[in-house]
Amino acid sequence: MHLKYESTLREPLVDGVKDYHKVTEDIIGPIEAKPGKLWYVGFFISLSLLAFGVFSVTWEVYYGTGVWNLNKTIGWGWDITNFVWWVGIGHAGTLISAILLLFRQGWRTGVNRAAEAMTIFAVMCAGQFPIFHMGRVWMAFFVLPYPNTRGPLWVNFNSPLLWDVFAISTYFTVSLLFWYSGLIPDFATVRDRAKTKLRKLLYGIASFGWTGSTKHWQRHEALSLVLAGLSTPLVLSVHTIVSFDFATSVIPGWHTTIFPPYFVAGAIFSGFAMVQTLLIITRKILHLEDYITIGHMEAMNKVIVLTGSIVGCAYLTELFMAWYGGVQYEFDTFYKYRAAGPLGWSYWIMMTCNVITPQVFWFRKMRRNVMVTFIMSIIVNIGMWFERFVIICTSLYRDYLPSSWSYYRPSWPEVGFYMGTFGLFFTCYFLFAKYFPVIAVAEIKHVLKTSGESFKDKMQKYETEDADKFAHDVAHAH
Amino acid sequence: MEQKKYWKGLEELHDTKGHQEIVKNEFREELPFDENESLLNATTPRRDFLKYLGFTTAAATIAASCEIPVKKAIPYVNKPEEITPGVPNYYASTYAVDGEFVPVVVKTREGRPIKIEGNTLSSVTGGATTAKVQAAVLSLYDVARLRYPTINGTETTWAELDKQVKAALGALGGQPVVLLTSTILSPSTKKVIGEFLAKYPGSRHVTYDAVSYSGMLLANEAAYGKRVLPSYHFENAKTIVSLGADFLGTWLSPAEFAKQYGATRKINAAKPEMSKHFHFESMMSLTGANADERFTHKPSETGAVALALYNAVNGGAVSGIADKRLADGITKAARALKASQGKALVVSGSNDVNVQLIVNAINNLVGANGTTIDWAVTSNYRQGIDGDMAQLVNDLNAGSIGALFIHGVNPVYDYFDAKRFADGLKKAKLTVSFNDRKDETTELVKYAAPDHHFLESWGDAEGKTGYFSFTQPTIAPLFKTRAFEDSLLSWSGNTTNWVDYLKNEWIAKLGGQEAWDKALQDGVIEPTTAPALAGAAFTGDVAAATAKISSAKKGGKFELVLYEKVAIGNGKLANNPWLQEMPDPITRSTWDNYACVSNTLAKTFNEELGDDYEINADKKVLKIKANGKEIELPLLIVPGIHPEVIAIAVGYGRSLNAGRAAGNIGKNAYPFVSYNGQTFDYFAADAAVEATGATYQIGLTQTHNSYEGRPIIKETTLEEFIKNPKEVNEDRAELSKYGADFRSDATLYPNYPYPGIKWGMSIDLNTCFGCGACVVACTAENNVPVVGKEQVIKAHEMHWLRIDRYFSGDENNPEVVFQPMLCQHCDNAPCENVCPVAATNHSSEGINQMAYNRCIGTRYCANNCPYKVRRFNWRDWNGADSFENNLYDVADMNDNLTRMVLNPDVVVRSRGVMEKCSFCVQRLQDAKLTAKKEGRPVKDGEAKTACQQACAADAIVFGNVNDKDSRIYQVRTQEQQDRLYYVLEETHTLPSINYLAKIRNKDAAPKAEAGHHEAAHHG
Lengths: 478, 1019
Prior knowledge:
The structure holds two protein chains of two kinds.
Chain A: H1 20-32, H2 37-63, H3 78-102, H4 112-132, H5 160-193, H6 197-206, H7 214-247, H8 259-285, H9 294-324, H10 328-338, H11 344-356, H12 364-367, H13 370-396, H14 412-435, H15 441-451, H16 453-458, H17 460-464, H18 467-475
Helix pairs in contact in A: 1-15, 2-14, 3-4, 3-5, 3-7, 3-8, 3-13, 4-5, 4-8, 4-14, 5-6, 5-7, 7-8, 8-9, 8-13, 9-10, 11-13
Chain B: H1 10-14, H2 17-24, H3 37-40, H4 46-64, E1 89-95, E2 102-109, E3 112-118, H5 131-140, E4 150-151, E5 154-155, H6 158-170, E6 177-181, H7 187-198, E7 204-207, H8 214-224, E8 229-232, E9 239-243, H9 254-265, E10 276-281, H10 286-290, E11 293-296, H11 302-313, H12 324-339, E12 344-348, H13 353-365, E13 373-379, H14 386-398, E14 403-407, H15 411-414, H16 418-427, E15 430-433, E16 447-448, E17 459-464, E18 467-471, H17 484-491, H18 498-510, H19 513-522, E19 524-525, H20 542-550, E20 558-563, H21 577-581, E21 589-590, E22 595-597, H22 599-603, H23 611-615, E23 618-626, E24 629-637, E25 645-649, E26 674-675, E27 680-681, E28 683-697, E29 699-700, E30 715-717, H24 718-723, H25 742-745, E31 759-764, H26 773-781, H27 789-793, E32 802-808, E33 815-821, H28 830-834, E34 840-842, E35 848-850, H29 860-863, E36 871-872, E37 914-915, H30 921-933, H31 946-950, E38 956-960, H32 967-975, E39 980-981, E40 993-996, E41 998-1000, H33 1007-1015
Parallel strand pairs in B: 6-7, 6-14, 9-10, 9-12, 10-11, 14-15, 15-16, 20-25, 22-24, 30-41, 31-40
Antiparallel strand pairs in B: 1-2, 2-3, 4-5, 4-16, 8-13, 17-18, 18-19, 20-28, 21-29, 22-25, 23-24, 23-28, 26-27, 31-38, 32-33, 34-35, 36-37, 39-40
Helix pairs in contact in B: 5-26, 7-17, 8-13, 11-12, 11-13, 13-20, 14-16
């Protein structure tokens, strides 16, 4: 048992009367059963979206980036907006799995598996955009620093876009390892319960011969900590580097030093919102309300209101600096063409969704309301999409020379590409929900006896006990 | 068991020291590898070699999967004597189309003409060109050209055609032959025509100009007894008043006038002075945009304005002008004209004899004759008399014309009463067209005997009396075409062919083959000493003209004015995609004509300048009725047009037979022309306009009109500049806060010194008139693709060089500034450090270079370019793609014929890569190599960019800024320090292009008003 005593005042992390077996049944059970009708419907829709995305991208690659509505002034639009949005969403997973692990936040166990899966799928989606936004995607390998026969020709280490290549690929690799190492004991559980040969074989391979020996558990724990240590700086670095794409440029509206913290906060903000969206659906469909509790949602809503407020501060700081800096171009960008002007509507959508509406989470009642949380999670993600759109497009469309000012509306292949990444994301997520334990079984069992509702009740007698006596009893337990 | 030890030698048995050593080593002996110093230090050591071998195999596998199809080139089996592959040949020639006279030099590569430059030996144009001249080379390769003679539209042979035409001529039964041509400058051609017509008594040659100047010709006849056009000398004028004459864009000889006018607009910092230019017009012309003071009036008031100016110059008061601003303007212009007696010039774009007579009278009063107007050397630029054409149409309809030969004109398209002409045409027994394509007129004639393109022709041209320029073929005829003169010679029974005819003429005149060869080589023959400027005695009847002008009927609520666009002109070159895609200098539109209206008028149709108007390509379609005709055209808001005037460009609405680029674009506005009994009127005094509810998309390359008071444009008035030359650049003082040298002190990074050549460019905003010649020159030189209207609407146009046009001030009387914008070749280029693959980088000579092969198309560089000059290949414009069958070509630019115009020194770019101005690096390399072969440094002026060479007004100076003798060095460090500035200098991009502030010769506005000025800026 965990050498930790948790007060009964604290909300249980697992509701209901559970023992280890019940936990296994609840979580592994759906893997062994046939999926429900809803799963098939959802999976089919996702696959359709994915197919449309593949069609849109093929169209674009074949006929050229000109089928998008980008132009001489606005070189990036929905493509990079979606890229940053997806990368941002990925952040919550890493934050939950790494930073909360290091901070020993027990509540993460209920949500970390799904959040990490979301991270991986989101980064996969994000990666599509910088690849397929290239004019000559078949030359994409030029961004890799490999020895070549072109004389001293090397990649340009000054370019933030190159930093992105390293940042995103590192992030993806570490996240994948972290996620997978956590999955091993659970895969072994599935293997051990398997009643069909194929399942036994496949999960057997996937579980890398896990036997559950103490040595395995010890190494597993150590690996988790090492990976958590590696991931923690990545949570900060990835979006910092993504923000450098803009911050190191000369375009008014991009060229600001506030971007790294602002982007990271925004990423966590949108990431948690996405986790909420997914988990509210998952717990409903897979009947996991006991594991993903209202308490989990409340914790995440607190993070949302905090990061949302940081983001709001950043918006105001930008406006202040645009005025205080006294640079005409920057002032015009922020006050005339971002907060107003033909694309001004996008700025106010962003402000409303990201700064104003999340303030409802100052109220406990709202934080603990599933419906409100669900709606808010959608609103926040809309807001965060618009934040990226605002940063990218409202800076580009009216920059230094008014002769080149332009306007931007997406074309169908651009929208199709975005829808396609939703298809990719949910296809992966549905497969994950069907074939993978969506909650970390081993970890839940880990906290069950300290933080599970039924075990907490047993603590009641200690609560009334005299502290000195309790200490004495523990010390002289033999 | 006994452990036996076998030994192989005594060394092993005794285990000597040496043996122990050997055993320790894996290999018993030194490996026979020659690992000496040189091998290890080789650029590719053995190990690397293996690495590379492995990699290249892998890379080749990847690369092979997207192999670009191999196109084979066939080398010469026997090398022609004069052609060395890779080395261009230049031939002097002449652009003489519709009376425009521009001596040129044609660059050919491997026998293909690829570029036209002005001939600097000509004293008339001094090497100036226009957009039309620059684009003419593309017309040579026009796929819509007629490729063989036809009879009733079916292919025939020249022999058969000759037989039939001769027979038909013989069967005319004494009916006259009429040769209908546009203005012909060639004296020899005229002689051939004369000989041909002499065979048929009663025959005549009718000259018809689609856009006519017969009002001037007749007025000159009335005033000076000579039906000619004089030579204008804008360079001698201190005060220039133009009554609607767009002399920088379309009027008579814009290349020549831009050169002359440019000379008066250059600012000598030591002694600043410049001409003062007043402009009175109804619409917004290119010349009006460059005027110091500009006033608008309705087209029906043109006469009244001329008259008022005449009266004011004559000492009277301005009367009959209701508009106070206009009246004041006339008073002011008159005062200025009088003050610069002998250095004044008034020109008018009107085709009305009476107006032109009054203009002649004014010029006479201000002493222009003999100073700014030369009657000793007259020009032949336009010779058409409208009455002759009207008479011809009457005769045709009366059935009294036997044969009609048509050369270079297209009346079925551009005659105002085209139907009547077409009806008459049918009544002629013999109809022959020499036109180059199956245009609207050629479609209706029986015989088409297509003439060569001028680049395939022999010829001469006398632009002005005594000033000749020659035409020689730069390529063998591409098709089965025949010189117009050859046809006439053959039909008049002359067996001499045209080449010999021309040669005999000139050898006789010049006195020998050698002189003729020299003439061809130089391209021009001019009087050894230019004749002194001469005046002429004015004998015009001003009173009669006044009476006629005064009795002219007053205009209605709205009036319509027709104009020529700088690029498309009268419509003859409408099938030239370069010209179609060249943005109109004023409206910045491409590929269309439209109804230009003021913001005031647009408001009545619920359209006005602003964000909505800017971001939507859809423009409201108006129905315009005048002279009993009506057309529907989209409205386009043009600040500066008179609020009650609608302006429409002619030259559009061609039939599809004219070519894919010209066909079905815009509407034909010629039907609005009217005949006043003497001349054609290019306006309608009473027009009605109504909304239709429809919309139509227009491809604009620039949608925002104001520079928002940003310091990217700097301008001041002459008066202010004389008072305090430093003032225009006051804000540059801010930069000194970073230290003595902004370049090195405002950065943490080390400064690259550029020890060798450092290329730089200076652009004078005072002499850039926005004509667009440089844009087309750049397109031609650098194989810049044509994208078509749909892609222009998507802002995908590819021009490496654009001319930004900004309006400021009052929306109905704005000031205009033009700013050529191209890659600034920043020494601290924002594009360079963001490219992930280092595809764009900096040369040691300060050029921002593009490695197209390396570019993967992230467009990050274009985003980060503050000047937005980078152009991305959004589609496969030129078939250089890895994918088949997705060529995007709306104008036949990739036909094997058209592709002959490509400059072989510049690669075509594949889809998905970024491109931009290269400072014409191929020309710079050429100059450097030539200098290197001769063992000397590059001299100033040897390396010229295409834009610089095309500029009529020499607004662009380019060269090595490290060369203290170079023009660019002089301009930057000595001559123009006060006006010199860099665009967005404060961002520390360190551009290699500087601009010289614009100076307007107008009354300095009081400071407070200047502030208000900015506030009144319109989107």
